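Changelog note: in this version the structure field was regenerated for every chain. One regenerated record is shown below for reference.
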Amino acid sequence: MQQVSNPFQAMKDVFIKPNQVFATIKETHNWSWIPFIVISLITVIPIYLYFNFIDFDWYRDLIIQSTGGDLSPIEKENMTKAMQQPQLLWASVFGAVIANIIANAVLALYLNITTKSDEECIQGYTDWYGFTWWASIPSIFTSLLALLILGFSNDPQLAPISLGPTSLAFILSVEMNSAWFSLAQSIRLESIWVMYLIAVGLSQWTQLPIKKTYFIATAPYLAIWGAWALMVLL
């Protein structure tokens, strides 16, 4: 099997030749810094541009109305004073990066545990953590689509869900005050792609049966979404 020669080529080839990419990164070190940096940068750019584009007073009122419906007038006033554009901008930027770091750290722990049944698997936690950034590359498309939406929009009252244009919340126009909003926002089209890449990577890094690799790849997403839906229903 022909191996890719550098991490930038690997980021391109993961879309068309994922088996070769994961076979290559199994034998390389320090390449995972590249997708981590690229994903982090492309994630924060639309967030930064969004907060410098919108009518912030409108945005603040929208958030307060959507999340603070049971608050008293005084509490809403205090919330309004606390929500300032610079603070929310940088909290959102750093929050997005930290959220990705934590999510991949948890996913890496899950993969490290579930692959223990393969006695020939020698990868440790840090290897699986690097692996998760390669599997997360499809998330780049969400940010690129968000940039396109921002670029073509002339409305300073653009809904914040526009930053997640591949989510069910955006596709189905779920209102922010809906009980289903957070769940719908978390279910994104590229998640299917990510699950596929995890399964492909597992097939290259382990000797596990193909059915088991797909089960491991899909189980955490389906379990979280299913449990979340039950909580909303109950």
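Spot check on this record: The first helix runs from residue 7 to 13. The chain has a mean pLDDT of 93.
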